[in-house]
């Protein structure tokens, strides 16, 4: 593969994604705020650097996969940030789940330097990343999308292009996560209703997962909710709160009410306030069980 790809963000999603790129033959220059997390990649041939600015190769591709808007803006705009090193025709592939407004702002700042910002948020948990089974949303500059497509094809099972507006893919990502947390709440209520009436939670989850709702979300998350396996977290409940908050902010800017999202925001906020922020977001079901008088013991895993 020609050129060195910059990579920033080696969390639960970033580390396996960067590993897949290395194993696909790409050369990587990596940065992570906690430098020790880069060591497994260095052992596979990656080059670790001391700042986001140093991952950039002139005219090359840089990938960021970070937890929130603040982290992304700090990496791009902060001292020794990416933007200071991007050159004409550089491509910044932002795979973070952030506000569409953040994507639009950063895209405009990239354009001032002749560089291109692409939004490419993903659907999939860490195990899906490792298995190269991500679903990818993509939006931004057309020529830049052509450059990154071969790379994205190495890490995902499908790419969906939502046009040249930088924030479009982030709107889709927020809409998708809203649908997922809505399904989590619905399953939690349905399974608890069954349990309160003497029906096994796993049995009802198997029925719906195989028939009316035969799809990955109801099958995989349904199994976790039925078996009450909320730790370790594949996607933290606190991050679910962040995403629903972003969906509500985007809806407000669009002059659109999202009444169900407002309800879910309050459910998630209460769960975080009660110390559940670090469990998986399927752990929202704990609140449903508790409100129904079914006390659960938290896993110690």
Summary tags:
alpha/beta, 9-stranded mixed sheet, 301 residues, 9 strands, N-(1-d-carboxylethyl)-l-norvaline Dehydrogenase, domain 2, Rossmann fold, 48% helix
Domain unit count: 2
Q: Rg from C-alpha positions?
A: 20 Å
Order of helices and strands: EHEHEEHEHEEHEHEHHHHHH
CATH fold topology of the largest domain:
Rossmann fold
Mean pLDDT: 95
CATH-wise, what's the superfamily of the largest domain?
A: NAD(P)-binding Rossmann-like Domain
**Overall geometry:** globular
- How far from one another are the termini? 40 Å
* Number of helical segments with 4 or more residues: 12
For the sheet with most strands, the description reads:
9 strands, mixed
- The helix fraction, in percent, is 40-55%
Low-confidence stretches: none
The percent range for strand residues is 5-15%
Task: Provide an overview of this structure.
- The chain is α/β, with parallel strands linked by helices.
- The chain folds into 2 domains: 4-163, Rossmann fold (3-Layer(aba) Sandwich), CATH 3.40.50; 171-291, N-(1-d-carboxylethyl)-l-norvaline Dehydrogenase, domain 2.
- It has 12 helices and 9 strands.
- Strands 1, 2, 3, 4, 5, 6, 7, 8 and 9 form a 9-stranded mixed sheet that branches.
- Helix 7 packs across helix 8 (201-210), helix 7 (168-196) crosses helix 10 and helix 10 (237-253) runs antiparallel to helix 11 (259-273).
- The protein is globular and about 65 Å long.
- The protein starts with a strand and ends in a 10-residue tail after the last helix.
- The model has no long low-confidence stretch (mean pLDDT 95).
